[in-house]
């Protein structure tokens, strides 16, 4: 049996699995920490005898990363919520400690895995990581299934439509997607009916081996930690979406939202971190907003209604093939400025700046 890597849109058929062989699926969560609109997960469940949902957490990365404690707390809350939702399906989340390329192959052999599924990662780092894992799976005879669900569109399709180059202006980006079909509809949530008899083998030592760790276990000091502003997880994301759409109903009826001083404060309808971690599907948000507009306005919505989602899509498209998108050096779309490295001049500037700041306070 030869492993096949499936790239691209929803609905692409799996290849490389011997007819009649039992399917034992592992779904690898990274982003996309949700059960709704998860086409890769649903595809892996089809005809499977067993399934396991894993998240790979590198403890060394947690201790050495520049990512702050609040972001880690949000992620752990997302994993706890995902585990609770999987429990409702008589399953659990398997949190694996280690590097994916080291930890996953060992578990594949232990579990008799035949199929690995995951959401396609649009970021350059994730694409390299996934290619390496797919290569290992091919050697092990494991079928790999990827599906696009972190973005509205299959980004490569946008690039191909633009002659093989990512559009570098928002106006150009909008012109391209205006000629394309609408984004795929979101997939329904995974339920007991979806499983159709597929089970997850769970043992008594699951929490000890695969439980969601605490911040303390990851080496963080939590004594002075304030209560969270953002509660992580799919459940909170869907509740916020409902509140957000209630606010959008007022916007659609009476006009555009206006910025206020409170707009910069955390909102009970804010969705940004939930889209970032994939607790909320962009496609679900897109189509619920579309349906609401059509219900109120009795017409198809303008592109501007989805402006925030489309800006997100535009930047993902510009960055997906550019590993240095967040840097100047090595970035082909960034102006290369010959910055001066003069430590003495910098020290003088810093000294003067401090005096000006102090004078301003006085």
Automatic annotation (TrEMBL):
- The UniProt record lists the Photolyase/cryptochrome alpha/beta domain at 23-152
Give one GO molecular function term.
DNA binding
Question: Which positions in this protein are listed as binding FAD?
Answer: 308-315
In terms of PANTHER family, this protein maps to: CRYPTOCHROME, CRYPTOCHROME-1
Keywords, alphabetical: FAD, Flavoprotein
Q: Name one Pfam family in it.
A: DNA_photolyase
Protein name, UniProt field: Photolyase/cryptochrome alpha/beta domain-containing protein
- Where in the sequence does UniProt note compositional bias of the Gly residues kind? 1-11
May I have one GO cellular component term? nucleus
Question: Matching PROSITE patterns, A to Z?
Answer: PHR_CRY_ALPHA_BETA (PS51645)
Enumerate the cofactors the protein uses. FAD
Write out the ranges of the annotated region (Disordered).
1-22
The UniProt family comment states: Belongs to the DNA photolyase class-1 family.
Cofactor remark: Binds 1 FAD per subunit.
The Gene Ontology biological process annotation of the record reads:
circadian regulation of gene expression; entrainment of circadian clock by photoperiod; negative regulation of DNA-templated transcription
């Amino acid at each position: 049996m030869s492993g096949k890597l499936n790239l691209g849109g929803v609905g692409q058929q799996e290849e490389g699995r011997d007819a009649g062989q039992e399917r034992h699926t592992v779904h690898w969560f990274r982003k996309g920490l949700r059960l709704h609109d998860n086409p890769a997960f649903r595809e892996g469940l089809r005809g499977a005898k067993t399934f396991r949902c894993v998240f790979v957490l590198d403890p060394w990365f947690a201790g050495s990363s520049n990512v702050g404690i609040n972001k880690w707390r949000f992620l752990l809350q997302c994993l706890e919520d995902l585990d609770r939702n999987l429990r409702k399906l008589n399953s659990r989340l398997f949190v694996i400690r280690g590097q994916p390329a080291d930890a996953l192959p060992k578990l594949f052999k232990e579990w008799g895995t035949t199929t690995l599924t995951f959401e396609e990662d649009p970021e350059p780092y994730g694409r390299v990581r996934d290619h390496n894992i797919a290569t290992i799976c091919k050697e092990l005879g494991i079928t790999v299934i990827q599906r696009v669900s972190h973005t509205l569109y299959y980004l490569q399709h946008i690039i191909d439509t633009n002659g093989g180059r990512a559009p570098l202006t928002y106006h150009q980006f909008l012109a391209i997607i205006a000629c394309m079909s609408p984004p795929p509809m979101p997939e329904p949530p995974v339920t007991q009916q979806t499983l159709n008899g597929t089970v997850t083998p769970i043992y008594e030592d699951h929490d000890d081996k695969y439980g969601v760790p605490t911040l303390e276990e990851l080496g963080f000091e939590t004594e002075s930690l304030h209560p969270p502003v953002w509660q992580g997880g799919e459940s909170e994301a869907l509740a916020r979406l409902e509140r957000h759409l209630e606010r959008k109903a007022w916007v659609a009826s009476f006009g555009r939202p206006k910025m206020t001083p409170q707009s910069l404060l955390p909102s009970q309808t804010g969705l940004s971190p939930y889209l970032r971690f994939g607790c909320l599907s962009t496609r679900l948000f897109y189509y619920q907003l579309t349906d609401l507009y059509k219900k109120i306005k009795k017409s198809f919505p303008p592109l501007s209604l989805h402006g925030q989602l489309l800006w997100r899509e535009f930047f993902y498209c510009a960055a997906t093939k550019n590993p240095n998108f967040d840097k100047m050096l090595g970035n082909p779309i960034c102006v290369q400025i010959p910055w001066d490295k003069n430590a003495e001049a910098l020290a003088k500037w810093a000294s003067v700046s401090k005096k000006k700041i102090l004078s301003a306070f006085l």
